[in-house]
C-alpha cells in the first residue's frame, strides 16, 4: 500500500470549501517567504506586457491609424492598419528616449543598422515611413503612408497626370481617385446625386462654365459617368506647368506642377551620377540632408561637396518616389522629395479594424481586408 501524508483538520476543511492556499516558497536561507501581494502581481504582469509590446512593436510589427484622406479610396480615414517590419528588415533604434514618443536625448545618435528582410520594396507597395523633411531624429519623425511609384535608379516624370517610369505609363489602380472634368451636353442638366453616390462620389464642385462640373472619382466611376446620355465627355483635370504651384513643388522654382512633373532620376545605392545644372536642384538636397555632406557652389558655378569641387557623386543608400492614391489630395514626393531607405518603417499588409467617424459605426466590410 502506498504511503500517504496525513492531512490536518484545517487542510481538510479548506479543501471542502474549494480553497487551497499556495505554500510559501522557501528562500535561499531555508526560511519561508510570504506570498506576493495582489498589487505586486498586477504590477509584474503589467511590466511584462509592456516589455512584450515594446519588443513586438520595435522588431516585428506595428499598428497605425489613417488620419487623412490622402490614400482614398484604398485606405479610408479611420482605418487601422497592421504594418510588418519584417518584410524589408527591422531598423534598429536610432535615438535614445521614450519609445513611440518624440521625447528623446537631443544630439545623441545610436549606431544603427537594418536587419535582413525577406523581400525588397517593389513598385506598388504601400509603405509606412518617417516624414523625411521633418527636423527630428529619423525614428522620431511623423509616420506617413504612401504608395511606392518609383524605385531606386528609375527615371520618373508626370505628363498630364499620367505617371511615366522609365518611359512606361503607369495606369491608375481601381481604388485610386483624382479630379475629373465632366462636360455636359446641356448646361441645364444636373448630375443626379443618387447615381453619383452609388458610384462612391462624394465631392462635386461647380465651375464658372455651367456645362462643366468637377468630381473626385475613381477611373471606373469616371468611365461609368461618361456613358450617361447627357454627358458629352469626361476628362482628367490637369494643372499645367508653372503658375502658383511651381514654388510648392520639389524642387521649388523648376516650373513643375502636381500633374506635370520632372523628369527626375531617383537616387540608388552605388549609383554614380554626373552632376549637372539639370539634376543639381533635386539631388543637392538629398546629398546634404540624407547623405550627410555640406554642399555649395563656387562663383564660376562649380559644384562643391564638403568644400571640394565635385563633378560626380555616388549615393550611399536607396531612395523611393512615393505618391498618395488620392492623387489630387496628397502631399507626397512631388512636394517634398524622395524617401531614403533609412526612413522606411515597414509594409502595410491589411486593415484589422475600421471606424466610420461620420456615422459613428465600425465598417465591418473592411475588417482584415488586405492592402493592395
Task: Describe the protein's architecture and organization.
- This protein has helices at 9-16, 38-59, 193-198, 219-226, 280-289, 333-336; strands spanning 61-65, 79-84, 126-130, 143-150, 155-159, 162-165, 168-170, 178-184, 204-206, 212-217, 231-236, 261-265, 272-274, 295-297, 303-305, 308-309, 312-314, 319-323, 339-340, 344-356, 361-362, 369-370.
- It has 372 residues and is α+β, with helices and mostly antiparallel strands.
- The protein has three domains: 39-154 and 266-270 and 320-372, Umud Fragment, subunit A, CATH 2.10.109; 178-236, Alpha-Beta Plaits, CATH 3.30.70.100; 272-314, no CATH class.
- Strands 1, 2, 3, 4, 18, 19, 20, 21 and 22 form a nine-stranded antiparallel beta sheet that branches. Strands 7-6-5-12 form a four-stranded antiparallel beta sheet, with no helix packed on it.
- A hairpin with a 2-residue loop joins strand 15 (303-305) and strand 16 (308-309).
- The radius of gyration is 29 Å and the shape is flat.
Helix-strand layout with pairing:
Blueprint: H1 9-16, H2 38-59, E1 61-65, E2 79-84, E3 126-130, E4 143-150, E5 155-159, E6 162-165, E7 168-170, E8 178-184, H3 193-198, E9 204-206, E10 212-217, H4 219-226, E11 231-236, E12 261-265, E13 272-274, H5 280-289, E14 295-297, E15 303-305, E16 308-309, E17 312-314, E18 319-323, H6 333-336, E19 339-340, E20 344-356, E21 361-362, E22 369-370
